[in-house]
Amino acid sequence: MFAYITTAGQMKANKSLTVPDSSTEEKIKNAARRIFHKKGFAATRTRDIAAETGINLALLNYYFRSKQKLFDIIMLETMQGFLQSIKGVFNDELTSFDHKITAIVNNYIDLLIAQPDIPLFILSELKTNPQDLLGKIGMKDILMKSHFLKQFKEAVKAGKIAPIHPMHFIMNLMSMAVFPFVASPMIMGLGELSQKDFNELMTQRKVLIPKWIKALLKAK
Amino acid sequence: MFAYITTAGQMKANKSLTVPDSSTEEKIKNAARRIFHKKGFAATRTRDIAAETGINLALLNYYFRSKQKLFDIIMLETMQGFLQSIKGVFNDELTSFDHKITAIVNNYIDLLIAQPDIPLFILSELKTNPQDLLGKIGMKDILMKSHFLKQFKEAVKAGKIAPIHPMHFIMNLMSMAVFPFVASPMIMGLGELSQKDFNELMTQRKVLIPKWIKALLKAK
DNA sequence: GAATGAATTAATCAAATGTTTAATTATTTT
DNA sequence: AAAATAATTAAACATTTGATTAATTCATTC
After folding, report:
1. Among A73, A72, A46, A63, which residue's Cα sits nearest to residue A5?
2. What ipTM score was computed for the predicted complex, to two decimals?
3. Among A56, A76, B60, B204, which is most buried by a count of CB atoms within 10 Å?
4. pLDDT of residue A1
């Protein structure tokens, strides 16, 4: 029944090494990524993806079989990309704890200024999908078994920072860097900020947050 | 055409003063609230609301005319409720700046432990709907013209805290209190936390966040 | 207690939406 | 160049889904 689709799948496997992003399959994925990121799975129409790609609706199922399968691919790639951008920092054995904080905040904020829809997309869809995705990308080990976390625990032991649950630390770091992007419509509304104003504030935070985090770690 | 519905609306206006939450209209709203909060507008099916209410689907339209109108009511009430819980604190002229911080954090976290779906719901739907909602509930004035903000600016002038954009302060406060709830699936997954573990961490944060915020305000 | 209006339901509609089919065009293979 | 395979499209299908209609039950009023 799906013989020709299987073949298409094979074509993809072959082509993906040689053909650039302008292949039909990549064009569909790019359009799908944009729309899924902006509207989420439930509010996205396959017809809209096809229209934005500039192809016939049937081609979407020809290449990806279903909306769900296409979504799963986009979701996985998105989470991998999100993780990739900080993976290196977390396990760099050569940099100090303080330097890692700065590097992580800088990486996150740069990424989010460029792609501000990603965090709300991930958090919304992660709630529907269970945590099998978290397992699939191995986020847990990358973060919780990282050199970064080891350094945190050592600093606690050495009495350099207050003894709090490591998760509080992770939450504070993520909160201050990521939340403003999740809440940007509200923040821009409340503060009467333009997109440019907002991005300027976020750029300021690249230097402010590390400072704040260090102050807060020593508190009390 | 909708004569009987108009009448139903009138009935509601009359009844709402005397009839308890067990009226059909309230039962529909309660079910709608639960499902909208959990799945958002796009993923919610009117049939699911009807089923959860235990009524015939047609009654939903009889009372509320459309899914959108029902949603608008829930959305407005949700935002008002969310705001209501901190409105008083913000403009209490009798309490200190530090006390307000503690009160706000406590109010927020108590509310979110009880209704953890609310922030992601609001932030997701606020992105679709423009900011006309923000205007409708007058959030801007309550927050930005508050006694709380005045106290912040005075403390900056007096040199008691570092001179940062007030929006940074608001973002930090909201981030640290609200973001963990928005990201709870990820946080619980990463930290291998049960719901109980998570709630305990959040309860700890009621005392930790005010401490952190104060430390961070003086940083550098 | 008949009459009137409100509340509720079963059934149906119409549009939206994900998916498939069958045919056509383009490309590759022999 | 013919044959075979892949890519693409127009059209249609089958469900889903929000909404409506027409009838029925329930409650209130006179």
Report:
1. A63
2. 0.90
3. B60
4. 27
Please answer whether residues A180 and A205 qualify as being in contact, where contact means their C-beta atoms are separated by less than 8 angstroms: yes
Contact at CB, A168 and B208, closer than 8 angstroms: yes
Residue with tokens 């650039």: A20
Q: Answer whether A47's CB lies under 8 Å from A15's CB.
A: no
Of B43, B190, B205, the CB nearest to A139: B190
Nearest in space to B189 (alpha carbons), one of A155, A102, A136: A136
Question: Could you tell me which residues come within 8 angstroms of residue B89 by beta carbon, excluding any fewer than 6 positions away?
Answer: B95, B100, B103, B104, B107, B148
Quick one: CATH architecture of A77-217?
Answer: Orthogonal Bundle (1.10)
Of the two residues A113 and B144, the one the predictor is more confident about is A113
- What is the Cα–Cα distance from A156 to A162, expressed in whole angstroms? 6
Which of the following CATH numbers is that of domain B3-65: 3.20.20.70, 3.10.520.10, 1.10.10.60, 1.20.1050.40?
Answer: 1.10.10.60
CB contact under 8 A, B128 and A39: yes
Q: Where are the domains of chain A?
A: 3-65, 77-217
Please indicate whether the domains covering B3-65 and B79-217 agree at the CATH topology level: no
- A189 CB near a chain B CB, below 8 Å? yes
B51 shares contact with chain A (CB less than 8 Å): no
Distances (CA, A) of A193 to A116, A185, A197, B167, B169: 16, 10, 5, 10, 15
Determine the angle formed by the axes of helices A195-217 and A97-114, rounding to 10 degrees: 160
The per-residue pLDDT for range A90-102, each reduced to its tens digit, is 999 999 999 999 9
Interface test with A, best of B175, B200, B209 (most A CBs within 10 A): B175
For each successive 10 residues of chain B (220 residues), what is the average pLDDT? 34 36 91 98 98 97 97 96 88 95 96 97 90 83 92 96 96 98 94 96 98 92
Q: Rounded to a whole number, what is the distance in Å from the CA of B13 to chain A's nearest CA?
A: 32
| CATH architecture assignment, domain B79-217 | Orthogonal Bundle (1.10)
Q: B20 — phi, psi (to 5°)?
A: -80, -175
Q: Kindly state the tokens that stand for B76.
A: 């407005």
Nearest Cα residue to A218 out of A97, A92, A107: A97
Asked if B39 is an interface residue toward chain A (Cβ–Cβ < 8 A), one would say yes
| Chain A residues inside the 8 Å CB shell of B190 | 134, 139-140, 143-144, 167, 170
